[in-house]
Structure formats: structure tokens, C-alpha cells
Amino acid sequence: MKKNERYYQEYMTHRHVSRRGLFRAFMTASRKAAPPPADLPAWPLPPGAITTAQFFSRCDKCQRCIQACSMGILLARHEGFPQLAIEYASCDGCGKCIQACSTGALQPQQPVDTGLRPFFNAACVNPVKGCRLCVDSCPTQACSMGDKGLPVVDFNACTGCGACLVQCDNGAVALNEAAGQQAIPAHGAGAS
């Protein structure tokens, strides 16, 4: 994740910025982030998105979902389509974005699921005794400490909210598409 001026503007405009999160953002800004693997989607869709092709054919770029997001994690891409951005805040699963969608591109879910799942890398503080921030911050208790002292995730319990990513001080968490979901096209179908 490239932490540039836009990142910090979004971070600062979010109404739930914690002192800890702000400090962590400034402290980790100079770290070099590895580029994401080429097979990952270019950008994640909002929670409740129907299949990718149907989403892009139904979404009229009205941006009501973006305006309804109380956490401020839905952004407009340059094409006008909404993008889920969990870099600076997690999804609380309120479903307001889904309720605001009048085209049916976003469908009600119970519980609300972003379709993303966390994956942990070797950047964890200590493989013998982890910091547990991801475990303690998980609202569904999907994260736990594994036998080797590294976090593990119960993908069935996880809703992809991103709390573990937001809380991780070491960049050890990446959110990727859940297995079985379709890849998101780089420019979106019907992009103008």
C-alpha cells in the first residue's frame, strides 16, 4: 500500500481516527511496501456486490453508496465506480451502502461481508509470542493465535471487515479476495 498525500488526506478526514492509528500511519509511512501479486484484483467492490459482470452492468455510478458509508471506506474511482478502501478504517457492517443502492448492484447480506479475507506474512513481531492486536480487534473472533504463534483465520467466521489490517503495526496483514469470488477487472466493464 502506497502511503502518499491522498492516503493521509483520507486518513485525516475519517471521523474515527484514533491517536494510535494516526501515530502508526506516520511511523510506517516510510516503509517500502511490496507490490501486490499480479493475480489480485485491481480494486475490491463494496460489500454486498453481486457478481462482477452484473455489478458493472447495474451500477450507474450514482455514488449514493459512497455518501451513505458512515466509516468513509468507499471511494469513487476515476471511472466513477465505487471502491472499497480498508487501508485506514475497517467496515463496521452497517449495510447503509447496500440500503442506498437503488439499482440492485449491491444486495442485502446477513452478516455484511466484504468478500475479502486476511492473510498474514512473516512480518509479525515475534513468531513465538505474537502481539495479538489482530486477534483482539476481530469483532467476529475469526482470528486466533495458531500453534506456531502466528495468527490464523477462520474464513467462515470472517466477514472481511479489515479490523486486523487497520490494527496491525507491522504490515503483516493483507486483505485478498475470498476463494470462489470473481476477479475484479482493472478498469471495470462499461467504464467511460
From TrEMBL:
Gene3D superfamilies (alphabetical): 3.30.70.20
Keywords carried by this UniProt record: 4Fe-4S, Electron transport, Iron, Iron-sulfur, Metal-binding, Repeat, Transport
PROSITE patterns in alphabetical order: 4FE4S_FER_2 (PS51379)
SUPFAM superfamilies documented for this protein: 4Fe-4S ferredoxins
Record GO terms (molecular function): 4 iron, 4 sulfur cluster binding; metal ion binding
Record-linked InterPro entries: 4Fe4S_Fe-S-bd, Fe-S_Ferredoxin
Domain of life: Bacteria
All residue ranges annotated as the 4Fe-4S ferredoxin-type domain in the record: 82-111, 116-148, 149-178
The protein's name in its UniProt record: 4Fe-4S binding protein
Lineage: Bacteria, Pseudomonadati, Pseudomonadota, Gammaproteobacteria, Enterobacterales
